[in-house]
Amino acid sequence: MKSAIPKTVVVPPGHRRVGMEDSHAAALAVRQCNVDVVAAYPITPQTHIVEKLAEMVANGELDAEFVPVESEHSAMTVCVGAEAAGARTFTCTSSQGLILMSEVVYITSAMRLPCVMVLANRSLSGPLSIWCDHSDVMSIRDCGWIQTFAENGQEVYDLVFHAYRVAEMADVQTPVILNVDGFYLTHVVESLLVADQEVVDRYLPPYRPRHSLHPDRPVTMGAYGVPDLFTETKKAQDEALRATYPHIVRAWQEWGDLTGRHYHPVETYRTEGARVLLFTMGSIGQTAMVAVDTLREQGLPVGLVKLRLWRPFPHEDLRRAVAGAEHLLVLDRAVSFGGPGGPVASEVRSALYGQVDAPVVHDFIVGLAGRDVAVPDFEAMVREVLARKTAPRHEDYVIYGARE
Amino acid sequence: MTHDEGTTRWGSASGWPLPPGQPLPTNLNVYVANLVPKEEYFAQGHRACQGCGLALAVRLALKAAGPDVIVATATGCLEIITTPLPYTAWGVPWIHVAFENTAATASGIEAALKVLRRKGRIPDRKVRVLAFAGDGGTADIGLQALSGALERGHDLTYICLDNEAYMNTGVQRSGSTPFGASTTTSPAGKKSIGQQTWKKPMPAIAAAHNIPYVATANPSYPYDFIQKVRRALDTEGPAYIHAYSACPTGWRSATDLSIHIGRLATETGVFPLYEVIEGRHVLNYDPPTLQPLQEYTRLQPRFRHLTDDDLARIEARVRREYDALKRRAELDAKEEKRLKREAVRARRAQRAQRTASDP
After folding, report:
1. ipTM greater than 0.85, yes or no?
2. Residue A404: what pLDDT?
3. Domain B36-317: what homologous superfamily?
4. Alpha-carbon distance values, B235 to A18, A390, B156, B277 (Å)
């Protein structure tokens, strides 16, 4: 039977087992992707990633231009300029940095530039807080990037390769944000399987942009959209993002074939016979697995569904994963003030709307600004759901654990 | 400099372009015209207003640059007149990202060209990076990105096309709008003279970054303009050009007077032509006498509310600043001469020492 805590890990061929900080694992993966330009601005908790990259460039371990910009707005812009000129780029940010650069984030996807960003998720100010939640990424939910979530250090490492592989595919040409929970997945030292360069090279072909800025083939990029064409441009962009789905899945399949580590848009844990399904995104899924084990031991029929792919939203996978359950307990790490509940729950409700025998969605907003969500919290939430006499309305939600 | 000097230099064997630091010709001369590249990289049919100074400046800049250049442009007039989807007026590779980040876009392109050339992924030849932004996109919202790019030392040329207000959005004041000008957000009224602040000194701000080349340029002096763009592009490291850009729409001036108004801007001392080469100021054109300010302002209804007293006050400041610039250029020239003399003396002394120690 599967267990949340693996007893032994076999080192697959082409790998070594290394203890390292998750941030350094991300930086290592970026180096193994042989990026050409790195541009970033310091913000906690993303800093360790770019510090490590700066060190690699300084030591000649990575042949890249490291552009220490004066703001996140310029970090994203430098990546756009460099990517447009044919370079493979990397940037990394958090929270305030993301919303400062958000103007350019939208433009990047509209220009179909396959940039890759690691977003060390952190709450948005105010009040100022450096700790983890998902309010930053939710502020750019509709930015047109592919958005994935990692759950542990190994996933942070693996998903960097996936990000570049997918983004640069000829039929995708869309930027990717890899969400890694701040501190939980940036400042923790874990035991990781690190792939040999040869494995990476087999997975990720050299970057060959379809168009780039060069006098040998002059192109105009970033022309302005007259009303007569704007709608069509946006329709094309939306269709393009939706059409990335099979490529995202294929790229995960390829990585799985190479390394034995398989990833899916929606993943499940002990969902067989579950009455209540927990629904998580990001590092909280790790604790949720332990909670499921604990609750199952207590005889509670609980399972777990984890969303790895946030954009494009995997509606079908989600419906399949939750089919048969009575209750779906969605854990949101952001508030949609005055809106229809947490952003994840409202999308899940949307996906399930009108489905026969769909589970009742219970929305719990948890873990704001790094507040711990421990196994007893999961237990309390599950018991609360099972004790509810009537199903909550669509717009109902609980900000769990908040003191009155 | 005099008319004759210019003619001689341009007709002489010093060729095109002149080495940095040489005085520039300001006269129209048939020989000079022959030296200007015939190729056009800025296509006709773009949507600029009649008499647009910006369009002329960009056309000249692209002639100076030639084909091996990549251009980044800010959101604004230049972007919208040249690239309404699916058309483009650009014969060279061109990109627009947003309003305030043109210098960062150019930084990214420069970084990419550097690393891709090093890695052998693009042909091994110099491709230059040229950025255009307006005065708002440079002096106001884009100042941070520009400062960052200049400080980091990217090898790029940034040209600010200064039409002294936010023209594309409807003539709102910017930090570069001159004192007393009436704009839609600094309207002249019973209690206001119009713009109440003095123009932000962008060339000085750029020069304060200790970059190797800063210049002011004016498309009413086309050969000087081309020469400066050429020098800027040939400079290793960041170069900044502050370009005068007449805007009949925003200034409500006659469309057939843009070149004339541009000349008056320089001849009145409002927009002096100068370079700052490695920190050394060079005044490129010092008119024998500065024209009265009124010659310049009377052609532009944005100044029409100004009284004689107002004009006298503004003129006094213009002349003070002009004189300060001129003094600075003279001092820098003297210092340059002194350093040269010292170098010669040091060489002589060295030689003498060698001869003395020779058995």
Report:
1. yes
2. 87
3. Thiamin diphosphate (ThDP)-binding fold, Pyr/PP domains (3.40.50.970)
4. 48, 74, 8, 10
